[in-house]
Amino acid sequence: METDPLLDLYAVLGIPRIADAEEIRRAYRGLAKRFHPDSGTGEASAERFQMIEEAYRVLSSPQQRREYDHRLKLQEQKARAVLSCQVLTSRETLPAMETEQMLYLLIEIEPRGEFKPRRMPLNLGLVIDRSTSMEGNRLNSVKAAAHRIIDDLQEEDTLSVVAFSDRAEVLLPGQSMKDRARAHALVSSIWAGGGTEILQGLRAGLEQVRRFQRSDRISYLILLTDGRTYGDEEDCIVEARRAGLERIGISALGIGEDWNDLFLDRLVQQANGVSVYVSHAQQIRQILDEQVRKIGRLVARDLSLTLRFSEHVWLEAAFCAAPQFDRLVVEDGTCKLGPLFQGEMVSALYELVVGRAEPGVHRLLQWELTAEVLGPPARQERLEADVRLNVSAEPPPEPVPPRILTVLSRLSIFRLQEQAWRALEEGRVLEAGRQLEAVATRLLDIGEYELAQMALLEAGRVAQGAQVSKKGHKTIKYGTRSLGIRTPG
After folding, report:
1. 4: closest CA among 112, 78, 55?
2. Which of 127, 352, 379, 423 is the most exposed place for a label (fewest CB within 10 A)?
3. Co-location of 318 and 229 in the same domain
4. Residues 98-107, mean pLDDT to the nearest whole number
């Protein structure tokens, strides 16, 4: 829902925006004499005179002028904005009913097409699990991936490497990429042995990243682990929350099946990152490379979306729909959407309930988006607009926009698998099996054949009284999460 271009009424009257009432009156009188259709001058123009009349009508009224100034300011902010925001509703006209009605609202945020970001230097920390379980292909693949990162980083970038087991060792203190040979040698020296204490590695890694954190750098830490940490989970969450407040991003690559997905998900959420399931050691190099390249495409961070509802509208549920599915936590109408990267889109889907309303055009809500757009220099950006909907006694036939239908279809798969795991935890085994079968059916409908096969396999295990496999659980969970829509269709 784009706002129509707004005419600059001050320019129409040829006055500055700080003009007082007397200046507005004098300008109007002078222009009216020149352009009035009956003035008899060569400049007479009915169209120009109508514009002058409209400008005077608005600017001579203190209340209308305040409202106009506000709209003009928002439009100019939008014209300078890096971010573009598109709003879709599942219907533009609702029937006038006595009962409540469901309405879906999709808000999609992406960089404007003409925006050309400048890559900011990276301040990157790698925290590598070197516990005994990483020995062999896993650790070799991690080291190969780290070697690739060292080769690809630019000279102005900073890299630190920490290896941890039951203690942490700073192998490569944070430094620029001028001595790549030394960085390669230190990574090659990593060996496996010991247990898994993530807190030790996390603290050491964050300490290195903090040493080089500046406003003109993107500071980020990537954790690579294949195991569970015991007894220090809450301390890890505290460290990650502090990093998030300091604008240090944290993402995690979980390798194999034995890591705690609930813990890693919660950890990275504190610092606006993502957790990624790596099922095979051979995938590590590609996935880590993708993560680092993505960090270099950061456009904006701290995206925050606030909805202010009218009295007859309230929120039922909220989901992140891109770049991946997840539930959104809404506090006082505000949800945090994290970072935005060039070439990607962030979107939120809201389930709204609309109460009884008389026929006519109604303001449902006002949305407000705020974000820090990276520089140079970094700056805060704010966009806002109203969402209005027509209520009619006889609404015309109106299809749901295909964009919303696609999101709802894929989101239903993600929600079904969530329900299946919950049913298993609560002992409702038959129900869980049926839900996994439904997940498989819907995955087949959208062409996700391998993921559907895994869901059928796990449904069969449940039907036979066996436990869901760790691999199956993570494959389905992270596979359905990644069904989120990444780019506009």
Report:
1. 78
2. 379
3. no
4. 94
